[in-house]
Amino acid sequence: MRRWQDIELPALADEDALLFHLLHALRHIFENWCRLSILLEIACFLRNRSCDEAFWRRFRDAAECGPGVPQAAGVVISLASNLFANGLPPGLGDWIDSWLSPPMRVWLERYGIESALTNFMGNKFNLLLLRQFVTDGHAWRKVELNRLFPRHLLNRAVEAENPGLKTQLSALGKQAVHSLRRLKFHAVTTVHYRLELPRWRRMVRAASTRPHTDGSARLEVTSRGILSARAVSGAQRSGES
User: Fold this and answer.
1) Which H or E run contains 19?
2) H or E, element range at 58
3) Any idea where the domains of the chain sit in the sequence?
4) pLDDT tens-digit series, residues 182-214
5) pLDDT tens digits, residue range 100-142?
6) 3-class DSSP state for residue 2?
7) What predicted TM-score, i.e. pTM, was given to this entire model?
8) Chain CA centroid to CA 128, Å
């Protein structure tokens, strides 16, 4: 139960709220749009609760509630930590390492930060990560095809303000420009994705044969990967435009 002023209401426990936020962030990553501010919130939470060992024990128990959930939580926490150069709370890094597969670690190291800096709108490399959560090969082929060559109608980019002919033609022109931009995006990013697949497979094979012992093997964040709130704001404005 939570109290706000004179009102008492039921709410998620902190560990469940964090888990929901992590899954929500991963959903946005898979949908090619995730604001840096979402990952910044997670990084700040990691820092503020870093010494709360009881909380992180409850969180680990909650995250192990179903298949794929610990991996999903581990990917997003690692990405937020790497982006903002946060250390992980004691014990959490080893727990994450025990759940992440070699392909997930490769994705974080090779594509995570670069994709996040464009709000995951600049490429389709998120499909390489999504593949790790789809266990059925037949289902994956359908998912991949639909994501590479979407067949749904585009959202309306603009609506005519009145029924006048000039206004209608202007709206149609803007919609056509929007459609061409989306067509170009899908064509270019699909080609890049296909060209990247051989290198991705080589990196995964190399990572699978390389021994992985503990959290000390996690990628090191360079100064390029350390973001400030000001950088987040600027990148977000750029992504929204």
Assistant:
1) helix 14-30
2) helix 53-63
3) 9-240
4) 888 889 999 999 999 999 999 999 998 877 654
5) 999 999 999 999 999 999 999 999 999 999 999 999 999 999 9
6) strand
7) 0.80
8) 12
